[in-house]
Write a structure and sequence with these properties.
Layout: H1 13-27, H2 29-35, H3 49-70, H4 78-99, H5 113-123, H6 129-140, H7 142-158, H8 165-179, H9 185-189, H10 198-227, H11 235-247, H12 253-278, H13 285-295, E1 298-300, H14 302-320, E2 334-338, E3 348-350, E4 360-364, E5 371-373, H15 374-384, H16 389-398, H17 405-408, H18 414-430, H19 437-462, H20 480-489, H21 495-507, H22 514-533, H23 539-547, H24 554-563
Helix pairs in contact: 1-2, 1-3, 3-4, 4-11, 6-10, 7-10, 8-10, 12-13, 12-19, 13-19, 14-15, 15-18, 15-19, 18-22, 19-20, 19-22, 20-21, 22-24
Length: 564
């Protein structure tokens, strides 16, 4: 590894960053499993206030070590400075969130300690009897982990920091589904285990399921009544802090809100033009997309859809590698999976382990459906898989030794990754991969959803006024109810997806804006680099340099992309 100490023996910033990763894995075995650390396999984190404070104290001591490292000879090197800026920005943003008590009110339908506990089982090694022995141990650790989470939420109530009641009601419903009426999600998960461990796995799954039931009952009987009447929106001060955490930049919410509306109007005009090709005379683009639901290209069957998505990614890799990207063999491998039931409705991606023993994977929540229109899937899998999340995050892992593990794993900035993935959708349109009007209208619908996210995420949390030129309730102030109606009116997504999305934005304020704001930075960076190089600009070279930078917040991303 290129991260060497100075002649005086002290670490440089990249070493400080990687030492932070090692220490974090000790405190957070879920992160360890994502990174492929075998010793993490049987453990779960301490989500209690004490556990949260231990992670915060690690951040504080790391920042002190970083200050010392930045004064050493060699720290002036560009690679060291880039890593140092990221580490300082990320840890400072995380501490601001911690010190405001956000970890004591984290209830979400997508990302919370509860969800991390379940998700880690889907990425844990499960090939050998030893793997399943560790999984049984991890199942038995579920009660303590969820008790720590409950203690944190209790502490939040004592400090006057409630979660939103809508998130709480939604999570109670998710817990009902995970517990089941016949067999629980944990029981079904252990079905794949070896017969030699059947009794142990059955008992351990029962222990984990019992913990879900206790948490569900506490949410229903104690926490939900305590937060009834609390706001589902966060207000300007909390929004600024959370937006900084998710975007790696101090966002001007009023400018971003105006940008969201400008993109809405641009995309609406383009969608109306494309809809005319799909269904001449359609009153709205979503009428044309509803026609596609019934009469357009579809894939029938859950397993058939998984295979179709795999082939879509394989074809994209073959079409892009060597022309617009230069991919290592291990980056070319990505798997299509079906998401476990009971989660949020949106597809997602999980990156490979550091040694690539676990490949990158895309996950499709079926929401009980068995028939899937392809107009909705094509652009989404360009986003989640190739050339979106997979090419970026797997490339980061591929170059981890020349950067730092921190820059390529736990230092991820949501808006950077989501911005690249949205840029990837647009790139595939630019390159002509959306071969039918139906698929292109689906792409524009996906773009519109990200513009709508900017409008309603900022609008409802800050209770902004809807502008006079809006086709929807001009002059009124946003509420979650208006946000729900606006999203439903300007999206092809089914009702359960729309409901899931609004709850998601309420529980993760500031995250949803990063798609469009991040895409804007990626596009601006590309055009600045193109202008600088002129006729010598090479898109493949720029793509690979851009994907090999590791994580950057939006504050730094534009300048680094422009300089490539």
């Amino acid at each position: 590894m290129s991260n060497t100490t100075t002649s005086g023996g002290g670490p440089l910033p990249r070493q400080v960053a990687d030492a932070y990763v090692d220490a974090l894995v000790e405190l957070d075995p879920i992160t360890g499993t994502f990174l492929g650390v075998a010793e993490s396999s049987g453990k779960l984190p301490d989500f209690s206030p004490t556990g949260q404070e231990a992670v915060a104290q690690l951040a504080r001591t790391t920042l002190e070590k970083l200050t010392e490292a930045e004064s050493r000879p060699g720290a002036e090197q560009s690679a060291e400075q880039v890593c140092a800026r990221l580490l300082r920005e990320r840890l400072t943003a995380e501490l601001a969130v911690h010190e405001a008590g956000e970890g004591l009110r984290t209830v979400s339908n997508l990302s919370s300690p509860l969800h991390h506990v379940r998700e880690v089982f889907t990425i844990s090694p499960a090939e050998t009897e030893a793997d399943w022995t560790a999984l049984a141990q991890r199942l038995r650790a579920v009660p303590a982990a969820l008790e720590g989470y409950r203690a944190a939420l209790d502490a939040g109530l004592k400090r006057g920091l409630p979660a939103g009641p809508t998130q709480v009601r939604t999570v109670i419903g998710q817990l009902d589904e995970w517990i089941g009426t016949d067999r629980s999600w944990f029981a079904e998960f252990t079905d794949a285990g070896p017969d030699a461990l059947r009794a142990e796995l059955t008992e351990a799954a029962g222990v984990a399921t019992g913990a879900l039931g206790e948490l569900r009952d506490w949410f229903r009987d104690s926490y939900a009544p305590a937060v009834e009447g609390a706001p589902d929106v966060v207000g300007r001060e909390r929004y600024a802090r959370l937006a900084r955490y998710f975007n790696g930049a101090d966002i001007d919410p009023d400018e971003a809100y105006a940008y969201g509306w400008s993109e809405f109007h641009r995309l609406l005009a383009e969608m109306e033009s494309e809809a005319e090709k799909v269904l001449p005379g359609a009153k709205t683009p979503w009428e044309a997309l509803a026609w596609c639901d019934e009469h357009g290209e579809t894939v029938e069957g859950v397993e058939e859809t998984r295979e179709w998505l795999q082939s879509l990614m394989d074809e994209a890799i073959d079409g892009l590698d060597g022309t617009h990207f230069e991919l290592a063999e291990r980056v070319r491998r990505v798997e299509s999976r079906i998401a476990p039931p009971g989660g949020a409705a949106a597809p997602y991606y999980t990156p490979p382990s550091l040694d690539f023993s676990r490949p990158g994977r895309t996950w499709l929540p079926t929401m009980g459906e068995t028939r899937f229109p392809t107009y909705d899937l094509v652009s989404t899998w360009y986003h989640e898989g190739v050339p979106g999340h997979h090419l970026q995050l797997a490339q980061w892992v591929h170059v981890a030794d020349s950067l730092s593990r921190y820059q390529t794993t736990v230092g991820i900035v949501s808006a950077n990754a989501e911005g690249w993935a949205l840029y990837a959708e647009r790139l595939m349109d630019e390159l002509g991969f959306l071969t039918t009007a139906e698929r292109r209208l689906g792409y524009l619908d996906a773009q519109m959803m990200r513009a709508v996210r900017v409008i309603i995420d900022i609008g409802m949390h800050l209770e902004l006024e809807i502008p006079a030129d809006s086709p929807f309730h001009p002059g009124e102030r946003w509420t979650p109810q208006l946000a729900h109606a606006f999203f439903a009116q300007h999206s092809s997504r089914p009702a359960d997806f729309v409901e899931s999305e609004i709850v998601r934005y309420q529980g993760m304020a500031g995250q949803a804006i990063g798609y469009k704001l991040g895409e804007r930075v990626w596009l601006q960076g590309r055009e600045a680099a193109r202008a600088r190089h002129g006729a010598d600009f090479d898109l493949k070279t720029w793509h690979m340099a851009a994907l090999s930078q590791g994580s950057l917040g939006l504050d730094d991303l534009l300048s680094e992309l422009s300089a490539l």
